[in-house]
Amino acid sequence: MTYTRSVLLALTLALASQGAAQTMLETAATIGVQNTLQSIGTPSLPNVTVPKTGTGTTGVAAAPAQVVTPLTADQQALLAQGRAAYQAGNLAVARRLYEQLVTQNYTNPAPHFGLALTLFAQNDDRGAAFELQQFMALAPDRFEGPYNLGVIASRAGRRDDALKLYEQAAGLMKDQAGPAAQRQVLEALAAEQTRKADFTALSTTLAAIAVIDPQDQDVQYRLAQARTLSGQGAAALPGVYALLQAAPERVDAALLLADIYVAQGLPDRALRELDAAAPRVKTGADRAALLLRKASVLTQTGDTRAAVFAAQAATREDPKNAAAFAREGELRAARNDRPGALTAYLNAVKLDPQSAAYRAALAGVRLTLNQDAQAQADAARALTLRPDDATLARALFVQGVAAYRQGQYAQARAALSSSQTRAPGADTALWLGLSAYAAKDYAAAATALAESVKLDPTPTARLNLGSALLATARYAEAEAVLRGLVSETPKNAEAWYLLGLAQRAQTRESDARTSLKTAAALGNARAQEALK
Question: Which keywords accompany this UniProt record (predicted)?
Fold first, then answer.
């Protein structure tokens, strides 16, 4: 089943919000790993003992294993001093002690690891990575090396490398890391899989985390999300229902449940689940979220009237929710309820005056109500609010059309040209052509109108293109455009009139009179004058 774009976007954003940057951390006598995620907070540090001797066992690391030389008593004391300096924040001292120890016993992994952490803390990622590579060569069966190299790769933005290193760490850690450390490595892996949008692999990783901590409801929710995005929405349903049984007030789970049923082609089931969830949630904001999702589902089913009522109910449940008013405005505008849309957008702008999107939408509604000066002012205001590219193009379009209607043709052309550059569209090109024509720049008008026809050959665009071609004395081209138009819309009096002018300009009076007579019979007064 193909998922709707809105469902995919919502789920992807929710998953992406779970992960944050990975960091390395070291306790006094252990190798540590840490991964901070919003969903679990900052975990406690695991205790993973640094191997003091090596067995020469071949591990996952590509480099061949080396024989490990145990630390002497004096070297162990020096190692303890280095760790103490590191913990105290005396990084220069720690680096000196670790480097001294590396010089004395290069083939023991512990000094390399301590030096790597110290260099990382000093923002020397290259030096830290080198020392971790030495650690991996000496302790190829340990997970801490690839994990912390993954942290460095993440910080450098080398996401593919980080993913491979976290996968390597996850493969090594099973028999040597405790539950806390395992979860931290898996969370780092999950974060990279989310960035890569590999939801099948992410489902596997989150399932492993759920085994480690089966009571973590957030992990259950994320697992259901990942399964849904991997195309296994039906398989996610048992987990979502189990989560709702344990926490019936969770609005995010109720929304996910509805999204799954919509994706399965069962919008009516989705609506029933949303209605069932409403009494369980605890706040007006949560009920508004359910109602807004209900409005979206109803819109997809074609019941736009009920969708408006659902959005309106959302504004009553959460009267400070600007997005709810904006959604109501959008739905009312789609039903040509322009006064209702205007009221809704005014409320949205009042609640969130810094939203460029809401201000631009308000400007668009004003334009449909012929409130041109106000539309122009609102569009100008939207341009000052750091709009995204789509909102910027929309605001410029409204500003340009409003200016054209007020006879401000130079301003109209500037705004519409800028809009067309950012987001080419047939309507924008049409209005740009009309503005150029009004400014008597007929060549520019013909160019813009030809672009409009290319993008969407509407009768209006073709009629105006024919007129612009006539104005630039391109009579044969004008005739071709207009002849095609009258053949498709034979009752288009204006098209017949312009066709007659194009034929007369080419000294084909007989053809011209035939076209003009047709236009006159259809009620075109100018054609009647032209026949005299």
Answer: Repeat, Signal, TPR repeat
